[in-house]
Design brief:
It contains 2 helices and no strands. It is mostly helical. It has a domain of about 35 residues. The N and C termini lie far apart (about 115 Å).
Length: about 100
Amino acid sequence: MASLGRKNQSLSRSKQSSDSILSRVSDSSIVRKGKSTACDAAYVAKRLMKSTGKAAWIVATSFIVLGLPLIIEMDREAQLNELELQQASLLGTTAPQPSFMGPSS
C-alpha cells in the first residue's frame, strides 16, 4: 500500500509539473501566433474554395446554355453535309462545295 501511495504522489507531481509546462507553452507568443496564422489560413482557404465553387458553377451552366446547343447544331450540319455527299455520289453528280466566304459570282 505504501508503494501505491508513493506512485500516486509521484504521478500527481509529474502531472502538475507537466500541466504547468503545458500551460506555459500554450500561453507563449509563438503558439498564439501559430494558432492565429492557422486560423487565417483556414479562413482564406475556405473563402477560396467557396469562390472557386461559384466560378465553376457559372462556367458549367454557361457551357450548358451556350456551348452545348452550338455543338449539337454543328453536329447536325456535319451530318447534313455528309448526307448530301452520299446522295451526290449515288446520283453521279458532284456535290456542292461548302463555301465559307459566301457564293462566288
